[in-house]
Amino acid sequence: MPRIPHTSPQTLRLFEALLTDPTRWRYGYDLSRETGLASGTLYPILMRLADQKLLDTGWEPSDEPGRPPRHTYRLTADGVALAGERLARRAAAEGSARLRPGRATPAPGAASLIGVTP
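The line above is the sequence of Transcriptional regulator; the predicted structure tokens follow.
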């Protein structure tokens, strides 16, 4: 499996969407809607993951005359493994950030903002 030094938050959002059903072929438009990523962000990520053999890509012919075929994507086995590992790493980092000393203490004045008296 290729080593990727850094996985952006946008790539992690895409991994989350693709892992909901890793064997299902997905359209870029649907992934854009699900992740909230604009096409100018999403498609470069899809191309990079495909170049790294983390995504399978294909073309689905259109049933409607005049409509072009649609590009489809799904995670490869290596993609599933990397996506799971990166999402687990993020979850662990977020969990440890919540447990750090001092993180549970509200900022001065914050209690009055939510109606809690210290």
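Note on the example: Residues 9-113 form a domain with the Arc Repressor Mutant, subunit A fold (CATH 1.10.10.10). Helices lie at 9-19, 28-35, 39-51, 77-99, 110-113.
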